[in-house]
Each structure stands twice: as structure tokens, then as C-alpha cells.
Amino acid sequence: MDLRICHLYPDLLNLYGDRGNIIALMNRARWRGIDASVTDCRLGDALDGDAYDLYFIGGGEDRQQRLAANDLRARKGGVLKRAAEAGVVVLAVCGGYQLLGHYYRPADGDDLVGLGLLDLTTVHPGPSSRRLIGNIVIRSTLLGGATVVGFENHGGRTHLGPGAAPLGNVMRGFGNNGEDHTEGGVSRNVFGTYLHGPLLPKNPLFTDHLIRSALGRRYGQVTLPPLDDRIEAEAHASAVLRAAGE
Ligand code: GLN
What we know:
about 30% strand; four-stranded mixed β-sheet
């Protein structure tokens, strides 16, 4: 088996070590004897529709996000939409997550039109509003009630429509909007979240869920043998403790 990853805008949208998520995906596949490759796809590049099992988009501030939003719509949106409909995995963090919704309304300037892969909208309430910053812990039914930990830093408030399920419920931190206790958005194999951290090294259950979902489209149901996750479990537990103490 091989896992083909496409990293979208690796130099433009890459806050708080989002690239660590790619490394976690690659390593957890390779440690099980699954070939894994990553292709970077930047502003202006065309996207090859059939070439990938998983797309990753990281976070960025509003200026970078606007560049990415324009490029997504102009060059990559059609391919990504078809891929998502075919069950390809898309994981987007923070700024990238906001761009998968219908729009992101920044503090200044026009709305950034999103791809509409997730039924959600995001509004920044203005430059003097409080940013939602800190460690965050959520509980995810998607992962059998397991906790997912990370770090969030966003001004935008996201509200889910009926077509998107939350990735989890907020136990510590703010999540989508600091009010309704939801975090992230999921529709089929499209996953969006505010959790940096980086997210995947500290949450191996989620990483494996993504790998299984990504391979499942071409290989059917895949069973991943367990790995020695003592270090990852420790990192996860200490991040939960840290968040709980805040
Ligand atoms: N610009 C967005 C916001 O502040 C996203 C920030 C980020 O990706 N960290 O809401």
C-alpha cells in the first residue's frame, strides 16, 4: 500500500509547526510498512486530480489566507471538490479550516469566499475583539470519545450549519466560537479544526483514523497494526494536564 499526501501551501500556511502533521502521517504509515510520499503544492500550481489520498492545509493570518483563498478558487477548488466527493481525505487547520467553509469575514476588507466543502461560516468580530488563544482539549465521538489536544489562536468565530458535524465537544478552551462548545467540522472525509499543536503528533488516534480513511478509498477496509505509542501518549497526557491547569 502507499499513502500519497498533498501539502497545500506549505510555505504560506504553516503556523505553529503545522508541517509536523505531515511528518506524523508519513511516519505512522511507514512504521507499518506502508509507503508514504508528500508533494508540496503552492500558489499558482495546478492540482492533479487523481494523484492523492489526503490533502493537508495549515493555518495562516488573514493576509496569507486571502492569497490562498484566491488561488484555491481559481486553480484548485474544482479538483478538491471532486476529490472530497469521491471520499479523499482533506484535513485543514485554522486558517485553512476557515477556507473550507462558505466564507471567512475578516476584521478588515471583503469576505474571503471559501470552497464550501464544509457547511460553516466564519466571522471575525473586529480588530478590538478578543482572540481565542490557548491550549484546548476536546472529546471526539468520531474517535470513540477519545480526547484530542492542541493549541488554538484565532480571531474568527465559526458556526456550523446542519451539513457539518463537529469534530468534538470542547472540554477546555474555546473551539469554533467560544460559545456553543463545538470544535471543528466534519463532513464525510473532510476534517477541519482549530487545533494546531501540531495536532497529529500528540493525537495518534486521530492520525490513524485519517490514515485508515485515506487508504480505505483504494484498498477497502484497512487494519493498522498498533505501534509503540508511549512517547505520544505521554505528550498527549501532559498537554491535557497543561490545559486543565489553565
Ligand atoms: N486569520 C484567522 C483568524 O485569526 C486564522 C488564524 C490562524 O490560522 N491561526 O481567525
